[in-house]
């Protein structure tokens, strides 16, 4: 069987340049390595309070963004998580094989719940990794491209697969997280020690920002003392982040990027970064608008859900049988 590749993005807000560089930009290349399943993690978006119209709009945008990033719907299966009921069913089974202790150690849960009053933290936020593990195992995915923040959840899925297979035999496929060597963690432009994140929009570049705004945000990005354009995450987190953005979009190494700016001033460097980001976003936004206007994403998502359901229901039946649920 060809390897299966699975990844999802939550429609929790406007997509950022972090999401784009960390995952979206390179997804179209994966088709040469295996069978790709990409989804809109709308059930995951419900784990924090979200307005229904906002969620609907974000889901449509995300579908258009996937397609604008160059995905060919004939080669990849693109779908809404909520349109494939096997995700919720697998979740109901798998929640019995992950434990409270390990879930409470997840950094994402600790980060997101830290700002909340305990009585307002939903069970879904705590159990998020159970649903994510279910997403992955349903497709027998062996490769899971993610940014660095999701690595821990894929590791937990690996523990689950070991535990489950140890008990029931060789039922689930072992996944592995795959991260870009450079660009797995794009940082905020206003605080380069924090991850750029769509639910914490300070210092974000949004994929829908107009080009003038993008340019302004980059030109006013926090930089560091000194004047050399050097990659040094410890002492120059701001410059290092901009170098990463530049190198990823130009598809060159950090060293090559550093060389280009030897002896140049911060101002000239920022302008070059802004030029590259704006050029890429101009093309990307044009494609996004065409796809959105044509409404082609509707049929793509319907076809995708059908194809995804076939695969997912197969795995679900295998799991049901293994644990002793009657599948008549
Ligand atoms: P949220 O704040 O709602 O968690 P997010 O920006 O972290 O939003 P997710 O939907 O959680 O986005 O993640 C989508 C994908 O983008 C994941 O694979 C994640 O690892 C990746 N990703 C998220 N933020 C970054 C970033 N700053 N740099 C690189 N990759 C990222
Ligand atoms: Mg996240």
Provide an overview of this structure.
- This protein is mainly alpha-helical.
- It folds into two domains: 4-183 and 295-323, HUPs (Rossmann fold); 211-290, Tyrosyl-Transfer RNA Synthetase (Orthogonal Bundle), CATH 1.10.240.
- The protein contains 14 helices and five strands.
- A three-stranded parallel sheet has the order 1-2-3. A two-stranded parallel sheet has the order 4-5.
- Bound molecules: adenosine-5'-triphosphate (ATP) and magnesium ion.
- Adenosine-5'-triphosphate (ATP) is lined by residues 9-10, 12, 16, 18-19, 21-23, 146-147, 149-150, 184-186, 195-199.
Topology readout:
Elements: E1 4-9, H1 17-22, E2 35-40, H2 42-45, H3 52-68, E3 76-80, H4 86-94, H5 100-104, H6 107-114, H7 123-126, H8 128-138, E4 143-145, H9 151-168, E5 176-178, H10 211-219, H11 237-250, H12 254-260, H13 266-294, H14 296-323
Parallel strand pairs: 1-2, 2-3, 4-5
Helix pairs in contact: 3-13, 4-8, 4-14, 8-9, 10-13, 11-12, 11-13
Bound molecules: adenosine-5'-triphosphate and magnesium ion (MG).
Magnesium ion binds next to loops.
Summarize this entry quickly.
The chain has 328 residues and is mainly alpha-helical. The chain has helices at residues 17-22, 42-45, 52-68, 86-94, 100-104, 107-114, 123-126, 128-138, 151-168, 211-219, 237-250, 254-260, 266-294, 296-323; strands at 4-9, 35-40, 76-80, 143-145, 176-178. It folds into 2 domains: 4-183 and 295-323, Rossmann fold, CATH 3.40.50; 211-290, Tyrosyl-Transfer RNA Synthetase.
């Amino acid at each position: 069987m060809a390897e299966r590749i699975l990844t999802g993005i939550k429609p929790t807000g406007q997509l950022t340049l972090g999401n784009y560089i960390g995952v979206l930009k390179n997804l179209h290349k994966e088709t040469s390595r295996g069978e790709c399943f990409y989804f809109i993690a709308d059930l995951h978006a419900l784990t924090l309070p979200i307005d229904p119209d906002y969620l609907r709009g974000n889901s449509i945008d995300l579908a258009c963004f996937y397609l604008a990033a160059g995905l060919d719907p004939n080669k990849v299966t693109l779908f809404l998580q909520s349109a494939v009921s096997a995700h919720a069913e697998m979740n109901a089974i798998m929640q019995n094989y992950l434990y409270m202790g390990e879930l409470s150690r997840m950094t994402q849960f600790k980060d997101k719940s830290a700002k909340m009053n305990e009585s307002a933290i939903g069970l879904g936020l705590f159990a998020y990794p159970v649903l994510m593990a279910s997403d992955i195992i349903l497709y027998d995915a062996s490769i899971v491209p993610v940014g660095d923040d999701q690595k821990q959840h894929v590791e937990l899925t690996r523990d689950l697969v070991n535990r489950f297979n140890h008990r029931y035999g060789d039922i689930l496929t072992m996944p592995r997280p795959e991260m870009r060597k450079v660009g797995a963690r794009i940082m905020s432009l206003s605080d380069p020690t924090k991850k750029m994140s769509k639910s914490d929009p300070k210092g974000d570049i949004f994929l829908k920002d107009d080009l003038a705004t993008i340019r302004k945000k980059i030109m006013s990005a926090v930089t560091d003392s000194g004047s050399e354009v050097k990659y040094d995450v410890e002492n120059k987190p701001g410059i290092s982040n901009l170098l990463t953005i530049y190198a990823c979009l130009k598809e060159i190494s950090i060293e090559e990027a550093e060389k280009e700016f030897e002896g140049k001033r911060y101002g000239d460097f920022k302008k070059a970064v802004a030029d590259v980001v704006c050029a890429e976003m101009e093309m990307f936004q044009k494609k996004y608008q065409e796809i959105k206007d044509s409404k082609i994403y509707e049929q793509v998502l319907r076809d995708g859900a059908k194809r995804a359901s076939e695969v997912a229901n197969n795995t679900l039946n295998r799991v049901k049988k293994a644990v002793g649920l009657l599948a008549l």
